[in-house]
Amino acid sequence: MSKVVYEGWMVRYGRRKIGRSYIHMRYFVLEPRLLAYYKKKPQDNQLPIKTMVIDGNCRVEDRGLKTQHGHMVYVLSIYNKKEKHHRITMAAFNIQEALMWKEKIECVIDQHQDSLVPSGQQYVSFEYKPGMDAGRTASSSDHESPFSALEDEDDSRRDLLRRTTIGNGPPESILDWTKEFDAELSNQSSSNQAFSRKHWRLLQCQNGLRIFEELLEVDYLPRSCSRAMKAVGVVEATCEEIFELVMSMDGTRYEWDCSFQYGRLVEEVDGHTAILYHGLLLDWFPMVVWPRDLCYVRYWRRNDDGSYVVLFRSREHENCGPQPGFVRAHLESGGFNIAPLKPRNGRPRTQVQHLIQIDLKGWGAGYLPAFQQHCLLQMLNSVSGLREWFSQTDDRGQPIRIPVMVNMASSSLALGKGGKPQHKSSLSIDQTNGASRNSVLMDEDSDDDDEFQIPDSEQEPETSKQEQEQETDAKKTEEPALNIDLSCFSGNLRHDDNENARNCWRISDGNNFKVRGKSFCSDKRKIPAGKHLMDLVAVDWFKDTKRMDHVVRRKGCAAQVAAEKGLFSTVVNVQVPGSTHYSMVFYFVTKELVPGSLFQRFVDGDDEFRNSRLKLIPTVPKGSWIVRQSVGSTPCLLGKAVDCNYIRGPTYLEIDVDIGSSTVANGVLGLVIGVITSLVVEMAFLVQANTPEELPERLIGAVRVSHIELSSAIVPNLDSD
């Protein structure tokens, strides 16, 4: 075996011949003349699944970010420009690993190119120039890069050869304000006047940021369009960490971007380009001024110096028309430039520039300069939000996983009263359309029927037969119960998926909760919970003069209906003490218990084991500050905090949770019960996993209850038996 240049576990990502997409973990080995991958780490004379000869004609194509099976991966495609049908596509879960592979492969290609170049000629990297892809229509990134075509057309122009292609380049309508152009551009009458971006003056310093304003005015923009402004600040974090936050559109964004209200993905053009919808939260006389929203194209790239560029520009789209009650603003230019600085005192430092040139439209934009400037400063202050977010975050040692795009509004935005969008769901993109969307990558080998597995980041994923069986069993339990007729189940508390509905319940998205990941024992990493193990089919809201135990004995309850259909139920009875006792009962149903699984051991275990494992994750999305602080969102082992009584029946397990048994819980309850009609509460129940074999954790189920009315509770008819 030749000397190994680089090796490690990467993701194989492609499409089966029948059209279904898949991803696998494979062990890649890079040698001076060969790239190969194996199912396991190679030993002795093990044959690879596939190989590719690396020479001076090879290229590394950067295909950007792809969402697959609930994971965002950074995709690289290595091909020979003489035989483009023969290629290897690989991906990584974090940017650093993908960039390391890209660098190593390019180094090997360089060594072969040096041997191919005639005397006196040298290869140099090709840098993207604006206008080079003029006339190109936006297309999926699986098409051949325009730079590859350029190389084919004129192979003798070796100064234009490049090792890496980046997607399809930025859309031609987007102005790349981060590039410094030569002085002679000032003599050109280009409509974008890009050279003017170099003329700035310091407007003010605010929140530790320098705010700049563009000096040169342009006459091709309407009066209501502001001058370009940018905020410049230093954040103590790596470029990759900042890039992760900037690209996210999930709940984390509320913690650093005060102008963000909600957003969704409209269209994924390719791995570097996407069309987004973005609702703005502007606080300038909101009772008088209508809210603004944006539909824009976002393009990103990583430069050779390690910096990231994210560019924005407004774009009309057929699936993102004007929304009633909103004024559609126009983003002329904008984005982020994230550049590394020298570390100080051992801490990473990054300069973040955030530029915005926007026309807020409406009657106030052209006649009230204070309105325009106030809103711009509010949006630019997100840079200080980034700085403070990282300064107050301790969990920084784990590898950065590429963020998964999450909808903060449903794909078809429903409008409520006043024209304001209502969030029907907060499902991630891969949940809403990942199952039906096919991968754009090529099918490269015939072993595409393997299970998708992610090995522990600290260990080699060479599992024994017993471990593989355990993972298979765990995977079975992850799937929700299928083909269950939910219409036959009922409870006295109404089920309503409307965001603003009152006195009702709905299933909460598992990705709203963080649970222990596969490698938690080594890196303490938590991941979005994903799918539930069981289906929540009904909720009862009871009251009585005494505590209500063993509610499954009530005739006609959801657990008894499930038993008649051969299903297994987990019933959680949350008991609220007081002069009038209340019980909220949740019925979770599944087809069967998987023998040997953690959940099966919990169901059939003794009370000591159950008390040490039953976990609750609470959140209060809507409610007063003091209630949210009191309840918190920290996971809690219920059996150690309050008294839990477990009743195991032939087809069910009932868990009676006595909130009144804890003084602390009683104090919080006294605070909550008085304002319960104004609260929205989410609860997730799960079994805590403590060993690598039990990880990752999975939710039994999760529920969201909204604005509960005490008067709607009913007195149950419990049998004396």
UniProtKB/TrEMBL annotation:
It comes from the Eukaryota. Residues 442-461 have a biased composition (Acidic residues). One of its GO terms (cellular component) is endosome membrane. It is found in: Cell membrane; Endoplasmic reticulum membrane; Endosome membrane. CDD domains: PH, START. It is a single-pass membrane protein. Keywords: Cell membrane, Endoplasmic reticulum, Endosome, Membrane, Plant defense, Transmembrane, Transmembrane helix. It holds the Pfam family EDR2_C. This is Protein ENHANCED DISEASE RESISTANCE 2-like. It comes from Arabidopsis arenosa (Sand rock-cress).
